[in-house]
Specification:
Largest sheet: 3 strands, antiparallel
Helix content: 55-70%
Strand order of the largest sheet: 1-2-3
Radius of gyration: 22 Å
CATH superfamily of the largest domain: Citrate Synthase, domain 1
CATH class of the largest domain: Mainly Alpha
Order of helices and strands: EEEHHHHHHHHHHHHHHHH
Bound molecules: coenzyme A
Number of domains: 2
Length: 383
């Protein structure tokens, strides 16, 4: 009998050259470049190019890619018209699943054959379109649910700057733009996590890229994956203050409930992305005390209280532990944290979509059957 591993733990699902992760040493690299360097020196635009094409762009290549992204941000007016009929109380992740799938209806798809030149041109064009428009959809929805007309994208701003502008309707703050850009870089790719696997499985059927990304967004929406960033801030608010952490944590662990933003299938040390985000937190926490300062202090107290109790199991802060506090500082509502994750991860998903198509075989795992032995059908009047 084939050995069954719950959650497919440790089972390779593909051969990939997109990112490398060493969970014992806390190393994450995209195409060979450590994320610490990328967060410090790169931009989301350049990182997206790197993930999609495999190499860092030359200055001219980057300029062209950046311009193409800027020129592709707008969506057709009928997308906005359709969005007007969506329930304003719905979660933005649901809006995103629907609108990303809907964008596919505007672009008749060629049949992918797997690896031809036409395939590559189509994959390049669709990757650009989806990455460019994800932030537009999220920020349009933010304005629409506040009862406002959405802002048109601004071509003079970077991806991160334009996103903050469309979310808030103000010229973006330079420090927040820098931090948002780094957040987008840090969330862009993470090898074969649940949503990327979902994208690969959907891609392997030769479904179109909008269907691929829509499936991945649905997978990211779960709290054990992308939605943990929203749960973390809700949890910190629920705790209230640093002095309440110890009691709260003990009760929570006795009740066998998870601590949001802690633990990871692959990392057995602190997630390197959490280390970078925490440093950004240091920069902004000085600027504002009040609620954000309290959230940050509570998070730090919780991290140190968890070190004794969960550290021995290899459970440490993951990427979601500090990201939500940063987004709160930028004035972004709680339920938009996971959509920001999706905006960024679209770059990694598209890279995996391309990689899957270039060497495709449909996913079709097996199972260990544990059901009833074969038996005769009993007509309903004899049961
Ligand atoms: N809070 C409390 N205990 C946790 C925990 C958490 N956040 N994460 C893991 N553990 C415990 C598990 O219950 C298990 O305990 P046991 O050995 O006594 O049964 C042990 O630590 C090992 O867990 P592990 O096998 O590493 O977890 P997993 O791979 O099945 O699950 C997650 C990984 C991410 C789903 C899990 O850590 C979790 O639910 N985290 C909270 C949600 C979250 O932040 N998700 C975002 C991930 S980026």
């Amino acid at each position: 009998m084939t050995e069954y591993k719950p959650g497919l733990e440790g089972i390779p699902a593909t051969r990939s050259s997109i990112s490398f992760l060493d969970g014992k040493k806390g190393i994450l690299a995209y195409r060979g470049y450590r994320i610490e360097e990328l967060a410090e020196q790169s931009t989301f635009e350049e990182t997206a190019y790197l993930l999609l094409r495999g190499e860092l762009p030359s200055a001219a290549q980057l300029e062209r890619f950046d311009q193409e992204l800027r020129q592709t941000r707008r969506v057709k007016y009928n997308v906005r018209e359709i969005m007007k009929f969506m329930p304003l109380t719905g979660h933005p992740m649901e809006m995103l699943i629907v609108t990303v799938a809907m964008l596919g209806m505007f672009y008749p798809e060629p049949y992918l054959s797997g690896g031809s030149e036409e395939d590559q041109a189509y994959m390049d064009a669709m990757s650009l379109r989806i990455i460019a428009r994800m932030a537009t959809l999220v920020s349009m929805w933010e304005q629409m649910r506040r009862g406002n007309d959405p802002f048109l994208p601004r071509d003079d701003l970077s991806y991160a700057g334009n996103f903050l502008y469309m979310m808030n309707g103000r010229d973006p703050d330079p420090l927040f733009t820098r931090i948002m850009d780094a957040c987008l870089v840090l969330h862009a790719e993470h090898e074969i996590n649940a949503s990327t696997f979902s994208a690969m499985v959907t891609a392997s059927t030769l479904a179109n890229p909008n269907q691929v990304i829509s499936a991945a967004i649905g997978t990211l929406a779960g709290p054990l994956h992308g939605a943990a960033n929203q749960r973390v801030v809700e949890m910190l608010k629920d705790i209230g203050s640093p002095d309440k952490v110890e009691d709260w944590l003990d009760k929570r662990l006795v009740a066998k409930q998870v601590i949001w933003g802690m633990g990871h299938r692959e990392y057995k040390v602190k997630d390197p992305r959490a280390i970078i985000l925490e440093k950004f937190m240091d920069q902004v926490a000085d600027q504002k005390s009040g609620e954000i300062g309290e959230l940050f202090a509570t998070a730090r107290a919780l991290e140190s209280a968890c070190a004794d109790r969960l550290g021995p199991k290899g459970v440490y802060p993951n990427v979601d532990f500090y990201s939500g506090i940063l987004y709160s500082q930028m004035g972004i509502p709680l339920d938009q944290f996971t959509p920001i994750f999706a905006v960024s991860r679209a770059a990694g998903w598209m890279a995996h979509w391309q990689e899957q198509i270039q060497a495709n075989r449909i996913f079709r795992p097996t199972q260990v059957y544990v059901g009833a032995a074969q038996r005769a059908y009993v007509p309903v009047d004899q049961r």
